[in-house]
Every structure is written in structure tokens, then in C-alpha cells.
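Review form for a predicted model. The reviewer records the input and the model, then writes brief findings.
Reviewer: anonymous (R2)
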Amino acid sequence: MKFLSLFLIASLLILESCKHNRDNITPAPSVSRSHVVGLGNLGNTCYMNSVLQVLFHTKKLSDFYLQKNLKIRTDAEKNGALTKAYKSLVEEYFSKKNAEVVVPKAFIKTLSEHKDFSSFSLYKQQDAKEFIEKLFSVLSDEVGIENISFTRSFDEYSKPTKDAIANRFKGLLFKFSIFEELFYFLSSDERKCYQNKGLVYESERKLEIAASLTLELPKLSQPLKLENLLKTYFSVEKFKKKERKDYKCGDFNLKKNKVTKQIKLQSVPGLGEKGYLIIQLKRFEYNESTKTSVKIETPVIFPEKLTLKSEESQNKKESFQLYGVISQTGGVDGGHYIAVVKDKISGKWFEANDNRVKKLRVTQVLKNYKNTGYILFYERI
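Model under review:
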């Protein structure tokens, strides 16, 4: 607790410093016009193009990288080469006319030279979700906390949120970046033991900060609703017989009694005025007996608007609006990724299939991608 108190005091001092530093930061030239530009495929880089398209249309993130004097950690690898390359790519994207194409050659070259991407075969088909996680991690490492525009004091967050932040960023104050501010949320994994219908033991909650929700998909031909998948994800689940046998409830012998587990959403994404929720539909499953991966084709109907409740908001509903979809067609090894994005300025939808861009109606987005939707992006409104 002593360390935690010292950490929170240090955090508050840093955040107070940020308020003054913001006066010296050139305001970000906000994305201000309708803009969807194709991205050239450099050989199986559709997974990367689909991710980049959606990130470019994550307005708060693009505004952040468009600011003129973006500060980069001086101790970052190669002086923040990847951040510089990504910033240049964002600037090039928004400088092009809609009919033009951006070829991210310099960005991919910088990725290939970065040690954290050394095991990532960039020119071979990769998983878009894995690429998001890796990119977030590296870019987060390279930008300093001075760039963040906090809209409320760190002290206003609930104790579980502050404790988790203190644990997640212990000794790494500069790790707290625009990505944690916009995308990360807090969840808890809870275990409870019952005997004769009464709660006798409640294990300590395990808190976790993550940038995305991953929802398991059953193998069905009939469509499922995203809202029902989320309801199942956050519902109370009974331990199966084998799980109950192997689980200890403190000093209690509860082999024949009920044990439950539940994931709770402690806080929604975003530590400021905006937040972005990333939901992965787990369409790939590894078969242990055959040592192969199979794709799950279950159709999922996702809404244009979504509501979630969190412990921090005292179960008050928070609203999210769809602004991006990454679609995956084909098999496990030879599939193709396409991005579907909503232009923030015009409010119109576009399909970005590498260098080919076409307009869509929202009804087409909600209908045409229920079989192939892989990663969904929602903005808190």
C-alpha cells in the first residue's frame, strides 16, 4: 500500500505537469474533411492495410499523430523510428485526394527493421488481431505521457481502476500513452464458492487491463446476435465437474458444491472524453487432435449502436457506435482481409479492399459482413 500511495502521488504530479505541458503543444490539426484513400498491397499485406484503414479513421488517434511537435521518447529504439514512420504515413494518407492510393512501403520497411517485429513475417499472411496488439505495444512504448490530454483528474477514477493502473504501469510511467487512454479497459475475473446455496468463500478478484474483448463463437449455421454473445461473456458460469474438483476454495472442502466464475466489466475503454471498443470474434480454433486450425463460419449480427454497463459507471448504460469492421474471407492460411470504415466527416461508409475503395450504405455493412466480420470497432458516444 505504501508503494501504491507513492505511485499515485507520482502519477498525479506527472498528470499535473501534463496540464502545463499541453500549453506548449501545438494543437493537433484535426481530420477535417471527408477522406478514404486506398492502400497498396505489397504482397500479402492486406491484414496490415485493413488495420491501418480503421486506425486512420479512429479520429482521436489520427489527430494525435497529426500534431506538429509530437514528442517521442528519446530512449526508444532508433529514436522512435516506428512512431516517426507511422506519423509520416498518417500525414501522407490525409494529404492525398480520395482517388489516389498510398503505398506504405517506408512504414513496412521500418517495421521489418524493428526488433519487436523480427519474428513477424510482414510479407506473409498474418492475423490482423495479432498485428494490432503488436503495433499498439510498440507505438505505446515510443510516445511519452506529455502528449496525453487528460480531461479529468487521475484521482477521480475508482479504486479498482487506480489499483489496476498502478499494477499495470508499475515502474513504467511513460508506458501510459494515447493507446491506454483511448482503447484500454478494465475487467475482473471473479470466483465464488457456495455451500447449501450460501456463499462461503469469495476468492480475490483478478483485475486485467486489455485493449480488446475476444468473444468465443460456437459452430452454428444460424446467426447469433452480438448482444447475446456479450451477455454470455459477462454472465455467471458454473464450474464443470472437473474444474470444481481441481479448484480450492480456501480451507473449505466443496467438492460437491457449486463454484461460479464471472467476468465483469469494471470500466469501459477510454480515460478521457472518448474511448474506442475493439471486439474480436474468435473465428479461428486450434484442433489439438489434428494439430490444425479451423475457421468458424458462424454468422454474427452486429448492431450499429451498442450499449454496455460497467461497475465504474454504477451499471449505467454507456453507448457505442460502430465505425469500423475488419472482414476476413477465405481459409485459415489463404484468407483475405478487407476494411469497412465510416468516414467521420461525411458520415458515409466505405469498403477499403487494399487500393480499391467503394461506397456502401449502412444497411449493406450490417448485412453483408455478418459471415466474415472478424474485428469490430465501436466509438463511445
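Findings: The CA atoms of residues 40 and 103 lie 5 Å apart.
Further findings: Confidence is low (pLDDT under 50) at residues 1-29, 149-153, 168-174.
Recommendation: see findings above.
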